[in-house]
Amino acid sequence: MPTYKIRGIDVDFPYEAYDCQLVYMEKVIESLQNKCNALLESPTGTGKTLCLLCATLAWRKSLGGFSTGKSERNSQSVVGTPSSQSSGSSLPTIVYTSRTHSQLRQVIQELKTSSYRPKMVILGSREQLCIHEEVRTLRGKAQSNACRFLCRKSAKRQCAHFSQTSAYVKQNPHLGDEPVDIEDLLKIGQQFGPCPYYISRELSKVVDILFAPYNYLIDPSYRKSLGIDWDSSVLIFDEAHNLEGICADAASFDLPAGLLTACISEAQSCIDLSITRRDTSSDKSQNPENYAILKALLLKLEKGIADVPIESSELGFTRPGPYIYELLANLNLTHDTATKLIDIIEEAAVLLEEDKQQKSQGTVCRLESIADILKLIFKDKNNAHATFYRVHVREGQSYAPDVLKGKAPRTLSWWCFNPGIAMEEFSKRGVGSIILTSGTLSPMESFAQELRLNFPVRLENPHVISSNQIWAGVVGVGPSGHSFNSSYRNRDSVEYKRELGNAIVNFARIVPDGLLVFFPSYYVLDKSIECWKSVDNTSSTTIWERISRYKKPVIEPRQSSLFPSAIQDYMAKLKDTSSSGAVFFAVCRGKVSEGLDFADQTGRAVIITGVPFPMRTDPKVRLKREFLDQQAASSRDNNKFQILTGEGWYGQQASRAVNQAVGRVIRHRHDYGAIIFCDERFSNANQQSQISLWIRPHLKCHSRFGDVIFTLSRFFRDGVFSSSTMLKSTEKVTQMSQQVEKVQMRRLPKYRQCFLFFKIKASVIQAN
């Protein structure tokens, strides 16, 4: 195994490292040595995860040995106050997070390929790790409450798996010495009896590196339960391209009318239950008056929201963030009284859970959401964080009837427009380094400004592929010469939709195997396909039929529950030898564009049909832009550093969505593919500057559609795949290209006639 000396640290790497991998590891170690933050972009396929692990663990190993192989542990009760071995040895804990457990599973596989064996564990939810026969069938807070209820010392019926956990961990000090995943923890629990969930919690106190989804760090309640010694720790956010949105959402809340109605109903249930207990068993531990006060406050809040003056259903009612305290002051809710109300809600949750256990029911306690909202609002004594918020009340549909007759159901929202609020908690706790990394962080400057963190170490890495493995082009016009522009003014034009459809017919014929087509929104996707399926007077076949002749289509569903079957359908159609592949019609920011791997035959080309700007009329988008513009104006007035404007943020949100979508193809060193931008706006220099750095050197703008067909055909004919990996689908492309060569040979030196041929060919495809 090669060893590389990087900034004085010996880094063991399983393979011969590329130059871009050495540069990436150098940046990681620079961040760790200087205890500063890093923003690192490296395209998928460059070995980013393995580089990150090897560099971080090599640095950690240079400070002192790992905790593996030690028989004496800092053990204590699972439910006691947590402490970490790292704190005792003054060595930093590494917390490695990613968006999902499936992504973390891949990270752990990469750890197995390295020579490093730190003490490790992966954290999961009860939903993933619970093996209790009854509790594992529950979901969400209902499951958490049921688990806590069965794990209490005073519980009449205690969980047998929980009671075995502490002893099992003490008797097996080797746990975590080898990489373990969620499935490994489940096997331990199923085979030997201890609770996998609490095994992971117990091990987290003594590990060198901890793996978890990022919400475990961002959500205050999750973070508090970890019990990590934060001082000088290292936090890694892999696949961090969505982090700003996740941070903002974690610091915000929405309170719809239906949820508030359900909370009022639960408060009434608590009144009835506590009165029944007093009458039947003389149990006076629960005071019905407390729940009556809770119900009265919720009813008053409901009326307060209903009385807010909304003049425009489109704009709703908006006030600065501190207005929330005025609204709650009418309920006599302050920092002091809110704390008391939270205590009452927690007692109510226990009471409701005990009643559900007796009735063998497992529904969610909605009242706990009110407690979470109050904790968010009253988290700081001086309420300083409220300046980064906006209060918004809007009317809309609700899944539950509004109790106030004649009033449309309303939602009270308190939206955070400073994602840095969540991240600043780590600085307060003395974290050493925060490393954010992804294949698509560009545009970087806006990303850093949004999180309000200083990132002295930054990197935009090139790809490890060669120039003959990528075709990247801006297609400004279609087969008939009409411009491609999916702006709001043009996207509903029948002419535009037909021109786009005819272009996709051409691409479906040329591109082998899998083709991904991304639209700016579901609306544009639906309208385009509707147009393509309609009969055109100039042709006997529809555009949709001609697309299907070359590639079998699959459409991304709006419902998440239908997505797995759509993926299976796409893979099945790819394997079908009766056609030359499949085409997946999807949307930017949808599930297809997020984290899925369309390597090799599953994705030979990606088409971007427009610039996916967020919906301008969405109240959250509108208020975000207004907030940033106000911040920018204030910055200019005070002669401070220029910060991101609303318009700048708006454009960069679209660019980041594009970068994420095009990253679905070319997933490894030997992969190849085409990136096709079917919108003339991508010819703009400013728009191109927002595209990931690794794509820009290969990007060319084409003013004629015939040029696109010619160069794209040549790419798929003469590229790296002309070796033994060529498939039947590409043989059709080769035959077509050979026919083109014959035409060229007959008509040389009239080179321009070659392009005329392609225009004729395109028009034939359009007319068929």
Key phrases:
disordered C terminus, single chain, Rossmann fold, 29 helices, alpha/beta, seven-stranded parallel beta sheet, 768 residues
Written description of the protein model:
It is found in: Nucleus. This is Regulator of telomere elongation helicase 1 homolog. It holds the Pfam family DEAD_2. Keywords: 4Fe-4S, ATP-binding, DNA damage, DNA repair, DNA-binding, Helicase, Hydrolase, Iron, Iron-sulfur, Isomerase, Metal-binding, Nucleotide-binding, Nucleus. The protein has 768 residues and is of the alpha/beta class. It has three domains: 3-245 and 423-460, P-loop containing nucleotide triphosphate hydrolases (Rossmann fold, 3-Layer(aba) Sandwich), CATH 3.40.50.300; 252-414; 467-767, Rossmann fold (3-Layer(aba) Sandwich). The chain is built from 29 helices and 20 strands. The strands form four sheets. A seven-stranded parallel β-sheet has the order 5-6-4-7-12-3-13. It has a seven-stranded parallel β-sheet with strand order 16-17-15-18-19-14-20, with helices on both faces. Strands 8-11-10-9 form a four-stranded antiparallel β-sheet. α23 (563-575) links the parallel β16 (552-555) and β17. α20 crosses α21 (522-533), α20 (494-510) runs parallel beside α22 and α27 (705-718) crosses α29. The longest helix has 25 residues, at 257-281. The radius of gyration is 29 Å and the shape is globular. The relative contact order is 0.10.
